[in-house]
Each structure stands twice: as structure tokens, then as C-alpha cells.
Design a protein that fits this description.
This protein has about 260 residues and is mainly alpha-helical. It is about 80% helix and about 5% strand.
């Protein structure tokens, strides 16, 4: 790797603050999207789950209808056997044969009764399943509509910000590559440890940006001299003077406007 050219502390501070402004802009864009990507993903999962449930319910309905058809066939077969047995009874030679055929007829009649009972139960199941299917269908339609709305919302935000975000991410990487690794590591560590992602902040009204802790005048003078990198003893953030911050903000805003 080529050795980076020697840069002054002021140049490092400006580069770090520029990097902070770029990353903060990326944060703003992502905050605009907020929870939308997660909402869309959750809705997609819910719709997929409802579709699966709907398909399973439809399949179980088909199984029950097939069972009903089987029972109806069984009834027809039993009726045909009863008719055949009744004819046979007319030609029996003794009581034993008559009783044997009577038992067969009785058995087939019981088979018919059981099959009719099963059909009644199956039809009750069908009605229950149809209710669940109707509820699932309504829920699926409502979730699909909601998903379509959320996707449209997300697509609109992405269309507005995706190009800018990609350009900013590239700029952020470029700046990180131009700053020495130890400073980038420190910057990233601080940024990850603070809620608002601000690792480099200017002095505002005698205190570090976003803090109520006053910076002693002597330290403020050292920061303004731009001779060394100074961190806030309370938050650990890297501090820059207000004038440098204002200059870099103006410069970076012009850059953002071109993206």
C-alpha cells in the first residue's frame, strides 16, 4: 500500500469533520426511511404465511370433499349389495342361509348409517373451514393492500434518496481512505458509542456540540489553534472550533447539492 502523504493536524480535523458531515447526511436519509424496510419485510412474511395457510385450507377442503365422495360411493355399493341380498333371500333353502344373508343386509345397513353420519360430520367441517377460509381471504386481501401501500411509500423514498445515498457512501469511503487508519478507527468507535452518531462536534456557546459541559477557555484556545486533536473529556467526542465547522459545512453543503 502506498504511504499516505504527511498532512497537518488542521487538515486531519477538516477531513474528520467532513467525514462526520457525510455520515450524518447518510443517517438523515436512513432516518427518513425509518422502519419502512422492516415493516415491508414483516408484511411480506405475513402475506406469505397467509398464502400458505390459505393453500393448506383449500387443500384440506378438497380432501374432505373427496372423503364425502368416497362415503357416497360406499353407500351406493352397500345399497346395491342389500338389493342383491334381498333377491338371494327369496331363493334360500333353509333358515341358516336366510339368517346369514340377513346379517349381511344388517351389516350393509349399518355401513350406510355410519357413512351418512360421516358425511354429516364432513359437511359440518366444510362449513367451519369455509368460515376460516373467508376470514383468511379477507385478512390476506387487507394485508396485501397494506403491503402495496407501504412498498409504494418505500419505493418513492428510495427513488428520491437512493442515488444520493450511494454517492455519499462512496464519498464516506473515499474520506476514510484519505485519513490515517488510527483516526478512522477512533472515529468509528466514538460514532458507534453515541446515540446520534456524532463523533466530531464543534464548540457551541462554550460547550461541545450536543453537550451541556463547558469547555475551559484554555482548552477552547487549544482547539481553535488546530495544533492537536482534542477530545471532550465527558463524551469522548473529537472537538473542532466553530469557525472551522462553519467553513466545512458551507463547503460540504455545496457538494451535497451536486449529488
Amino acid at each position: 500500500m502506498a504511504k499516505k502523504k504527511e498532512v497537518t493536524v488542521e487538515e486531519r480535523l477538516r477531513a474528520l469533520y467532513d467525514l462526520q458531515l457525510i455520515d450524518s447526511r447518510i443517517d438523515e436519509i436512513r432516518n427518513v426511511r425509518g422502519e419502512l424496510p422492516l415493516e415491508v419485510r414483516d408484511l411480506e412474511d405475513e402475506v406469505a404465511g397467509l398464502n400458505t395457510r390459505f393453500e393448506k385450507l383449500e387443500a384440506s377442503l378438497e380432501v374432505i370433499n373427496n372423503d364425502i365422495s368416497s362415503k357416497k360411493n360406499l353407500i351406493e355399493e352397500a345399497k346395491a349389495l342389500i338389493k342383491k341380498y334381498n333377491e338371494q333371500q327369496k331363493n334360500v333353502r333353509n333358515n341358516r342361509e336366510f339368517n346369514s344373508i340377513s346379517k349381511e343386509i344388517e351389516y350393509q345397513e349399518l355401513e350406510i348409517q355410519l357413512a351418512e353420519k360421516n358425511i354429516k360430520e364432513y359437511k359440518a367441517q366444510i362449513e367451519q373451514k369455509k368460515e376460516v377460509i373467508a376470514e383468511t381471504k379477507d385478512r390476506l386481501k387487507e394485508r396485501q393492500t397494506h403491503l402495496k401501500h407501504k412498498k409504494s411509500e418505500l419505493d418513492a423514498i428510495l427513488a428520491e434518496t437512493e442515488k444520493e445515498e450511494e454517492a455519499l457512501i462512496k464519498k464516506s469511503d473515499d474520506y476514510k481512505n484519505s485519513i490515517e487508519e488510527r483516526l478512522v478507527a477512533a472515529y468509528s468507535r466514538i460514532r458507534n458509542n453515541v446515540k446520534n452518531g456524532l463523533a466530531v462536534v464543534p464548540i457551541e456557546r462554550g460547550a461541545s456540540g450536543g453537550s451541556f459541559f463547558t469547555i475551559p477557555p484554555q482548552v477552547q484556545m487549544e482547539i481553535a489553534s488546530r495544533k492537536k486533536i482534542i477530545t471532550d473529556e465527558h463524551s469522548g467526542r473529537i472537538l473542532v472550533d466553530a469557525a472551522l465547522a462553519e467553513e466545512e459545512k458551507t463547503k460540504m453543503e455545496k457538494m451535497f447539492a451536486k449529488l
